[in-house]
## 1
Amino acid sequence: MFEIRRYTPADQQEWDRYVDGARNATFLFKRGYMDYHADRFKDHSLMFFVGKHLHSLLPAHEVGDTLYSHYGLTYGGLIMNLKVTIADTITLFQELNEYLKAAGFHRVIYRPVPWIYHQVPAEEDLYAIFWHCHARLLLRNVGTTIIMGQHIAWRKDHRRRLKNAMENGIRVERDASLEEFWPLLEANLLKRFESKPVHTLAEMLLLKSRFPDKIIQYNAYQGDQIVGGITFYVTPQVLHGQYSSTNDIGKQTGAMEAIYERVMYHDYADCPYLDFGSSTEEQGSVINEGLIAHKEGYGGRAVCYDTYEWEVR
């Protein structure tokens, strides 16, 4: 039924047009985002056709004899529009396994798009890979998400820090400077976790230039001094905090609370979900209890980010 083609740069416009109309896609699947680090991954993304009609997409890369849902992305899986049905999807994965076997692959590592990012329910792939690929759950990470419209009361310490922000004249700027924020972020990650941001400043500036309305920087200032900031990814269903950080003054004066109050109750009050991201270590198996409690204090609760595995048969 399906013609399975490996993506090439000549397919970029067709790929991106499909992403724009898909029911479970975000701008992370646009080639301008996926390909900014093309030198780090051997891309093996796939396009599924029925006749001349592009049916669906699979962002992926290869390592040896394993096909991975693209690890340059937070999530992946089959990208589908409204025309894709469960029967189609079962056949697709059966034929995908035949394609992979013929191409010399022995294993698939698959990370579906979490349900909060779906504009319309899109879990046909989960049914198909369980029953027809005999997939098993390999890893489970957890993020913290709130439903914006419910306006769940913040925990007392967050409310107190928000009051501090108001009393200390903390000013929040939307679409603020990434260049000002990045040294603060790098210093904080190094001090707390001995780590670095996944993106360099140059990479984030490049992505911002390609997706100016999808990557929004909020900075908090006391006077002219930056004291905190959050880099948000804006998708149709979810406002995702990609990076957040404060300095000592920001912690004391409620910089984070000032930013979250602005986005949750004003700028993005109509967005269905706010995703604070994960608070785990060691591939999701260990929870950073302090960090996740901080996020839960805004009313957030758990959404799982799963990874599946199956052998190509």
Note: The longest helix spans residues 86-102.
## 2
Amino acid sequence: MTSPSSSAIEVTGLRRTYGTGDDAFEAVRGIDLTVAPGTVHALLGVNGAGKTSALDVIEGLAPASGGAVRVLGLDPVADRAEVRRRTGVLLQRSGFVGDLTVRETLQMWAAVTTDARPVAESMEMLDLTRHANTRMRALSGGEHRRVDLACTLTGRPELVILDEPTTGLDPESRRAVWKLIRDLRHDGATVLLTTHYLEEAESLADQVSIMQAGQIVREGTLAEIVAGHPSEISFRTPDVALSWPADAQSSRDGDLTILRVDDLQSALTDLLVTARAAGVRLELLTARTATLESVFLAVAADREGALL
């Protein structure tokens, strides 16, 4: 599955405003976003950052207040019928009929979908076969979410937009969905996803964009996102004075000492040599490079600081 455009999604200067005059609120403030064909792109941000407002425009559910959007080389509003045929969208909430069984729900969905997968294949993909005769109202939240995903993929979409796809799933089911997303990418599909599980984005995404207050404030590969962000060493030690590496910023979290450093290997080596010379054992010692979570939390802290 390939797109005739060089980008599966091309967003330029996108704005989305609610209300008018003094009551106007700009939820999306001139973002640029490019999603390459055959990749997984994660759009992250705290609640209220503008992710859903941006997705509504990309999906063709709402017009842009400003800027331009192309999806598979098409206008998602003017060319909605064509875009919709080639796109699978998973919303945060769905409205299935509770009295229908899982099989009946997927049959109904397949009946209105171009080039639909066989229902048995859809159920197998999402581990729903054993629930085929279960009524929708009797499903757990995680099982209901898997039916959502099965419907989203019924039309073999070129572009898959997943808004928090693993919410409500247990860890085993979440890993199964991760494999499914990787398989979609392997088969040539493009995936744009939002998630609050940062390890999900770390595991799946080729590119990451972080939104804050309606703007994209960080963007790139995972390595690019965390580059320049400090690594962290934490440990517990008896009340003995130790000298920290020169570039370390120290803080306390209960009885733990936390050091934030730019060069993790050099700082950890210096710390261990100093502790050994002082005859001190560093308990609960951990060392980790910067993570997407640490960058995300720093972005969120910047937002909170701006509001004070």
Note: The mean pLDDT is 90.
## 3
Amino acid sequence: MPTAEEKLTALRDILRRMDSVLVAYSGGVDSTFLLRVAAEVLKDKILAVTERSEVEPPWDQQQAADDAASLGVRHTILQVEALNDPAFAENSPERCYFCKKRLFNELLALARREGLAWVADGSIVDDLEDYRPGQKAITELGVRSPLREAGLTKADIRQLSKRMNLPTWDKPSSPCLASRFPYGTPITIEGIDRVSRGEQYLRQLGIRQLRVRDHGTIARIEVSGADKAKLCEDDLAQKTAAFFKSLGYTYVCVDLLGYRTGSMNETLDLKRHE
């Protein structure tokens, strides 16, 4: 089994052969690590592009721009109106396929205009373990995933990012806010707004790893470890319930299973969607 260092060497070789690249840059752990290594290998032959849309976590937008600037990478924002696409807004299990297909078609067009040879995303080996229909669109369009090609896992990337002093090395994952709704529940700007406000409230309490899952009248809060006990303390529980009720929820609950990635996929028969 290759070590993290050996995988990093492989990543550098992959990027060197790519020659120039547009990086789809969310500002998360994986894409920041990819951007850091790409900047080292390709110098000024890269462009970082961050999507801005109604469903992207607002707390990540400015941080992505700041981190790209700190790496000395040219960075731009791509404005996307995600909810204008009915195939996305109806929130079928294939929602991410439609989103990624639209986004990466735009990024490919931008790369051609900029004279860049490739478009790359931050997909990693771990992504193969979950239901990720967006990967199908990435494959169809010929988008590269250098981290996955090099065999890098999340654990590898956090370890290497810490060694490189990247501020994202221990950053919690922060996917699109549409992932907070059960499949089949239409995604609306009002729903996105209350989930966003709920998660911002919890972050202000010092909770870093969390999700607010929206089940109509029910807010299901996923947090881990000591944060579960913290939220259930009488005084804070009352204040938290009152805040979430002010957002329009009737019931507020803390999930006993805690935080977990992709919990909305637990209802899927994944064989039907392969």
Note: The longest strand covers residues 46-52.
